[in-house]
Amino acid sequence: MTKILAISEANVISFHAMALIAISEISINTHDIAEISGASKHHAAKVLQRLVKKGLLGSTRGPSGGFYLKKHAEDIFLIEILEALEGEVTVNDCPIDNAICPFGSCLMGGICTEVGNKLMDYLRSHTLYDMIKNVNETKDVLKTIKNL
Amino acid sequence: MRIIGLSDANILGIHSMALIAASGECGISVHSIAEITKCSQHHLTKVVDTLSKSGLIYATRGPSGGFHLGRSADEISLLEIYEAISGEIDQNDLCLSHSNSKIQLDFFKNVCNELSEEFLKYLKLTKLSDIQTKAEKILNKK
To answer: What is the pLDDT of residues A61-83, one digit of tens each?
Structure first.
C-alpha cells in the first residue's frame, strides 16, 4: 500500500539506529541494530556506514565493538540525520519540479510545500534527545537480545 | 527532495484530470495535455490509460475526439485520482512503516502521521471541481 510521506526505508533505519545507539548503555553493532529495527543486516550496514561517513557516528572494532554517537543526543538535530542520507534537503515549490508552472500558480494550492515545510521545521527544531526521551521499552529489548 | 510521496504519475494524473474537467463536452487530447503540462506524451499516455481503466475518464475517437470525465467533477475527489494511479493508501499506517521493529519511535511517528493525515484530508475533501477553474483559464487562453 502507498505511503503519504516520502520517508524511505533507509531513513527509517537511520532514525531507529541513531535512537538505539543514543539509548544503549552497552555497545551495539550492526547485527543488533538490524535485529531490533527489523531491517536487513545488509541494508542496516549501508545506512550505518553512511552515518559514520557523515560524522554522526563513530565505531570501534573488535568482539565488543560497536557504534557510538560523535556528539551528545541533545546536539544532534533530526534534520542532520535525514540529510546524512539525502544530502541537503530543500522543499520544492512545485511537486513536478516545473520551473514555470503552466497553471500560473499551484493547482493544488501549495499543499505539498506547506506540509513539507512543516516537517522540515519540525526536524530543524527537534533533537535526537527529544526523540528518545520517552522511548522506555528499548533498554529491555537491548537486554533481551544481548542476553543480559 | 520530495517530502510528499506524490510521484510524477500522481501529479500528472491530477493535472490531466483538471484539464479534462475544464474541457467539458469538447474533451481534450493527450497531445494537448502534454503541451500544456510540458510533460512527455509517452508518460502521459500511460497515466491516462490508467485513469481510463479506473473509469474516471473515457475516450471518444475521431478527429474531434478526446478524453472526458466519467462522472461529474464535483463527485471526484483528488484521493480517487491518487489511488487510481498509486493504489490504495493504507490509512491505518500512513508512514514510517516498519512492522518488524521492536521499538516504536512514537515521538517522530506522531508528527509524520499528523502531517500525513493533513495531506490525506486535503486529498479526500478536495474535489476535482475545486481545482478545475485554473485549468479552464489555461484552456480559454488557448
So the answer is: 888 789 999 999 999 999 999 99
Point out the residue among A5, A15, A96 whose CB comes nearest to the CB of B115.
A5
Q: Which sequence spans correspond to the domains of chain B?
A: 8-89+127-141
Give residue-wise pLDDT tens across range B39-80: 889 999 999 999 999 999 999 988 778 999 999 999 999 999
Sketch the domain layout of chain A as residue ranges.
9-88+127-145
What architecture (CATH level 2) is domain A9-88+127-145? Orthogonal Bundle (1.10)
Q: B101 and A135 in contact (C-beta within 8 Å)? A: no
Q: Phi and psi dihedrals of B57, rounded to 5?
A: -135, 165
Spatial CB neighbours of B53, under 8 Å, sequence gap ≥ 6 = none
Give me the CATH code for the B8-89+127-141 domain, please.
1.10.10.10
Give the number of other CB atoms < 10 A from CB of residue B142: 7
* d(CA A68, nearest CA chain B) in Å: 19
- For residue B110, the distance in angstroms to the closest alpha carbon of chain A comes to 11
Q: ipTM for the complex? A: 0.77
Is-contact B112 A11, C-beta < 8 A? no
Q: Which residue has the cell 500558480?
A: A105
